[in-house]
Design goal:
Blueprint: H1 2-22, E1 33-37, E2 45-49, E3 52-53, E4 55-59, E5 62-68, E6 76-84, E7 91-97, E8 104-107, H2 122-136, E9 155-156, E10 163-166, E11 169-171, E12 177-180, E13 186-188, E14 193-201, E15 205-213, E16 216-226, E17 233-234, E18 239-243, E19 253-260, E20 263-265
Length: 272
């Protein structure tokens, strides 16, 4: 009996240590992550940020809300709100974010159509935009493994958040990390998940979306090859495709985006 109790205690401590190592890095800036300790353990927390449910994990026996911070946020005070179990009383947890200035990147695209699409391209672009928005806002209550692998071997630019200027024209900030690699380099799933979207898209080229649970979504773009199907359950480390140069690119590389509660955040925060 004593042995069983000791073994149970050891496994509990091991689980807590593993969970602690799995949590991403906090970065209280636009495009970063807020880690908010919740003050109860007796019931299941259900919290949201700006109307969207946030990912909740456990660390050392306590609940932690992991909140994605949109690049559009201004410096100031924000909060998540929610309730516990079936209770109706609302609780708010406040946090502050600081401003961050991202650099500007000037890019020359040879295929001018990828910068100024033809009128006949717009229907396709709008249809693909709706598919992307649906994938980015996927949510369920699954348990999430937050110990992520880098999805490809190569040179990472750390370009998340950069303001981009294509052929002299300002466009949206960069929503992910670029990993420069040769065409054909394997792309792996950084964690377990389910393929929820894929295909050949106008700007992103061949892409894959994976949902890892609780609104944690990853996107892999500009692929030369896709090795998975929609609805397929993939395992951490499984090859899902190959690096390519499809869509709007200047050369072969992997574009990797990571989303929380419907917004893109800096993927490097998940690479511990």
């Amino acid at each position: 009996m004593r042995f069983i109790l000791l073994l149970s205690s050891f496994l509990s401590l091991l689980l807590q240590a593993t969970t602690s190592l799995a949590l991403p890095q906090q970065s209280l800036v636009p495009g970063g992550i807020a880690m908010i300790n919740l003050n109860r353990v007796d019931k299941t927390p259900q919290f949201n940020f700006r109307g969207k449910p946030v990912l909740i994990n456990q660390q050392n026996g306590r609940y932690v809300a992991i909140v994605g911070l949109p690049l559009s946020l201004k410096a100031g005070e924000y909060f998540i709100e929610g309730h516990w179990g079936n209770e109706t009383a609302l609780e708010k947890n406040f946090f502050n974010i600081e401003n961050k200035e991202y650099s500007t990147q000037h890019i020359t695209i040879k295929d001018k159509r990828k910068v100024n699409p033809y009128a006949k391209d717009m229907d396709r672009i709008l249809r693909e935009k709706k598919r992307k928005e649906k994938a980015r806002n996927t949510y369920d209550k699954a348990v999430v493994d937050l110990s992520f692998l880098q999805p490809a071997t190569g040179i990472t630019t750390g370009s998340f958040g950069r303001r981009r200027v294509f052929n002299g024209q300002a466009r949206r900030p960069h929503s992910g990390m670029d990993i420069a690699a040769d065409k054909g380099v394997p792309v792996i799933a950084p964690a377990d998940g389910t393929v929820i979207e894929l295909g050949d898209f106008f700007f992103s080229g061949n892409l894959i979306y994976i949902h890892h649970g609780q609104g944690l979504v990853t996107l892999f773009a500009h692929l030369s090859k896709i090795n998975v199907n929609i609805g397929e359950r993939v395992s951490k480390g499984q090859v899902i495709g190959e690096v390519g140069a499809t869509g709007r690119v200047t050369g072969p590389h992997l574009h990797w985006s990571l989303g929380l509660n419907g917004t893109w955040v800096d993927p490097v925060l998940f690479l511990n």
